[in-house]
Amino acid sequence: MKKYFGLALAVLALCGARAAPLVDAAFPGGNIVVEKIAGDDVFLHPDLRDTAGDWFYWCFRVRGAQHRKLTFHFTKSNPIGVRGPAVSTDGGQSWQWLGTQAVQSATFSYTFSADAGDIRFGVAFSYTEETLRAFLARHAHNPHLTVTTLCRTEHGRDAELLRLGRLDGHAEQRVVLTCRHHCCEMMASYVLEGLIEGVLADTDAGRWLREHVEFFVVPFVDKDGVEAGDQGKNRKPHDHNRDYSGDSLYATVRAIREQLPQWSDGRLRFALDLHCPTLRGGGNEQIHFVGGPDETVWHEVERFARVLEATQTGPLVFQSRNNLPFGKGWNTPANYTGGTSFNRWAATLPGIRAAASLEIPYANAGGVAVTDQSARELGHDLVRALQKYLADAEAGH
Quick one: 316 and 295 in the same domain? Predict the structure, then answer.
């Protein structure tokens, strides 16, 4: 009897070891379609939902895979970036690049430790409302930062509006920062954190900005998409960054179009919209500004870019030669047939000097890894450049 009991335990243990792991996207920012799990092989692809064409955002978690090496096969287009997948071993609280050694074409493998719990993988480092709330909690008592609500979204979420800098209404200059018009472009959010940190920092640049400038910051323009784990880019019938003409489809864009001109009161000088490009290759692995058709505004963007190039100290190096002016590459009138982008709309507001999009690569910027920390340091560089640019403009230089 004892012999059979031991055998039964061995069989149960073997069955437990071979039980299918749980692979899902049922968490904020999650996105995946699991086709099948066959032993240690998982077959899946990104969920495109209401996306026109193909895109590459994905983020999923694995549970119940202790002591196993699983191989994940993307069955459609290859959505793995140049530094491999991002991985989080603490339920999405922190991330690192898994590296290309784990990747073969559209497949990657991962060995789960004995104590592996909620392990998450993504095309890059996830950033959702939970991430933003944790960041804001670290600055909760700063008198130069207020957190309010821009509007309620179509799905009943609060879209955050941050105000920082000089908040008494007497700032001589005003700046707007927007992020996640395309909800999948999460690495841009870490740059925005760095920008906010820089404005609030006890530095020469931070102190000057808090005396002279008020900031209007929308961290998640496509808030519903961020939380739902949508692609966002090329959303049908058009995405949030093609919604700045005619009657806007999206509540956040309507609120920006209504509130920003009234708030800026003719004192808006700088508008910066943070983005990420496509996954790999050429300019997609270089930090660059994308301009609109107004040549006067683009001249000011180039002026700011030269200041940034001359003053930067962080690991992610920006070079002006990588900028994409209107009429070059994909940045042509044909790309905007679906509607007007934020930076083109902002360029029409009273008092504006510079308005542009800034593209931050997902994983590789000029050969240097884009991480949460290196992205924040780029934000710090942008703050120092912005202070010098605005101070020179105020002085008439």
Answer: yes
